[in-house]
Amino acid sequence: MREFDYRRASDVAGAVALLGADPDTRFLGGGTNLVDLMKAGVERPARLVDIRELPLDQIEPTPEGGLRIGATVTNGDLAAHPEVRRRYPALAQAVLAGASGQLRNMATVGGNLLQRTRCGYFTDVTRPCNKRVPGSGCPAVEGEHRNHAILGASENCVAVHPSDMAVALVAFDAVVHFETADGSGEAPLADFYLPVGDTPHRETALPSGALITGVVLPPVPVAANSRYRKVRERASYAFAIGSLAAALDVRDGVVRDARLAFGAVASRPWRALAAERVLIGATADAETYAAAADAELAAARPLPHNGYKVTLMRNLVVAELTRLAQEAAR
Predict the structure, then answer these.
(1) Which of 103, 159, 206, 237 could cysteine-pair with 117, CB 3.0–4.6 Å?
(2) Which of 251, 238, 310 lies closest to 283, judged by CA?
(3) pTM for the whole thing?
(4) How far is CA 40 from CA 19, 140, 239, 309, 311, in A?
C-alpha cells in the first residue's frame, strides 16, 4: 500500500477544499471498499480525508413527503430506520442483503453509491483492465465472465455494478445531492451512473472535486408494497448474480403502478422502464409479468457463459411480481 497523508474534515466546505487542493485525494467514510482497493494496489491516493464526523448522518423527512438520507448514514442505520422499512421496504431489504452486519455498521450511503466494480480483472493489478488502465483491454470478454453483464455493456467492459442499495434507490427515483467548490448540485440516480461506452473508467457523473452530501427519496406510494430479491451463488455474504427491486400497485385486477430495477446485470443499476410500460394498465397475472420481463430482456446481449442470467431475471420478475400481487390482495 502506498504511503498516504490523513486529514479529518470538520465541515463540508473544508472537506471539499481539501479534495480540490490535490486531485490525488480520496474521501474516507467507512472505508469498506476503498481500503480493500488500496491494499490491492488498485487505489493509490496520496491523501485520505476522513468525513465521518461531518453532520451528514441523519435520515429526515422532506417538505414534499419523501426522505433525505445523509451521506454518512451507515447502511445498518438505513436498514433499521422505521420510515425506510415502512415506506420503502425494498430499500431496507436490499441493504440487509448487501453485506454482513459488521460491514453494514461501517459502510456509508455515500460510499455505497461510489463502490468500484468487483470484477476479478479489475482487482488484479497484474492483468489488463480498461477501468483501471484505460486502453489496456477487457480480458473478461474472452475470459471469465460468468457473473458479468448482459445489458448495457460494451467491448470495453462487461463488469457489473456491485451495489444492492443502489438498485432499490434507482427504482424509487432517488436523487443524489453533492457539494462542490462552486456550490451545491444534484443528479437523479438514474443519470448518476454513466454508460460504459468507450470510457468505462468514467463511472459516475459526479463532478470533479465533489462530495456527496445525501440522497433524497421522493414520495412514491407504490414503494410501500415493494420487495428486493437477491440471487447469489451461496447463501452467506456474497455479491449478486442477479437481483430485482420491484414495487406493484394492483387494483381490481389491473396494474396501476409498477417499479422495477435489475441488479448485477449491467455496469449500473438497471431501471427496467420497458417492463414497467408493459405492466401499467395491464392485467395483473403471470402472463403479463412474463411479457414485461421479455420486453426488458430483449436488449440483453449475453456472453458465452452468462446467458443463464436472462432466464434468471425473467423468472425473478414473474415470481416477485406474483408474490407482491398476492400480498397486496390480503
Answers:
(1) 159
(2) 251
(3) 0.96
(4) 23, 19, 19, 29, 34
